[in-house]
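Pipeline run #58 for the internal structure catalog. This entry was flagged by the ingest filter as a single-chain record with no existing model, so it goes straight to prediction. Upstream metadata was stripped on purpose; only the residue string is passed forward. Reviewer on rotation: M.T. Logging verbosity set to normal.
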Amino acid sequence: MSTDLYRIRIVRVDGVRRIVIFRVYNVYYVGSHSLPQHPSFFVLLLTDPLTYIGAGGASFAVLESPFNEAVTLCQALSRAWMTKHSHEYVVRMQIQSYRPCTIPEVVAGQDMFVYSRSPDEDKLEQAEYEVEFTDAKWMEHFKEGHVWQTTSFDVL
């Protein structure tokens, strides 16, 4: 079993420009773990089990995506594969804004895991990322308001 590292919120989807704005929250405060810094995170994010919590709180699932039909999880987890292929899925990733964690225990250096639907979401370390995909099909399952937690990480 893996530990969720981040909470993901889809802020905006622009299919014409092939851009998704993600808000990524750090929910795993152990050691120097911090927010993603490499586009490989967003490529690996495409492999996530596509179960989301909608804006109204209802759960729903998307069972298939073009990426999951084209790439296996083992491939996406491979550093060699990601080095060779990540540019085929993500053109660029740009951090638009950043807020540090303001939870007193974390600021004091205490290790902490923040569970899903925590009322302290606004206090979590977070950043908004603008991610441009190479093709709109890779991002077609992302919808504004979707929220989920992920074990994805920077592969590179």
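catalog note: Residues 6-150 form one domain.
catalog note: DSSP finds five helices and nine strands in the chain.
status: ready for reviewer M.T.
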